[in-house]
Amino acid sequence: MSIRWTEEEAKAHGFIRDADGNWSRNTKARGQGNRPKEMPKPQPPVRRKAKRQARREECMQGSYELRIVCYCKRDNDPDNMCPKVFIDSLVEQGYLPDDSSKHVRRVIKEVILAEEEKTVIEIWKHVQ
What we know:
By secondary structure, the chain is α+β, with helices and mostly antiparallel strands.
């Protein structure tokens, strides 16, 4: 495993460069818990449960059809694309109430050759 830092990041993590250009740990920074004082401690991520709950309540009524389009630079088999990860993420974020057949009627998978690689997910309300 290798870590790639810019020179500023290496200095912020307590490393110094000697006259030969080699990097080493700054022994003066060790007493500070391997973290210089000017670097802030990482903050926990902001939870957006209220937004997710509001979206989930809005989409509880009815069922949906999903179209997952994978734009790839090289040809891939559509059966290699696993939509389970995408659907679980949509449920977790509150865009779908559940991934059961009661709420997800149909999943369409497509692979399209393109210059830019991306995945597009369309959610359609199922009209009966």
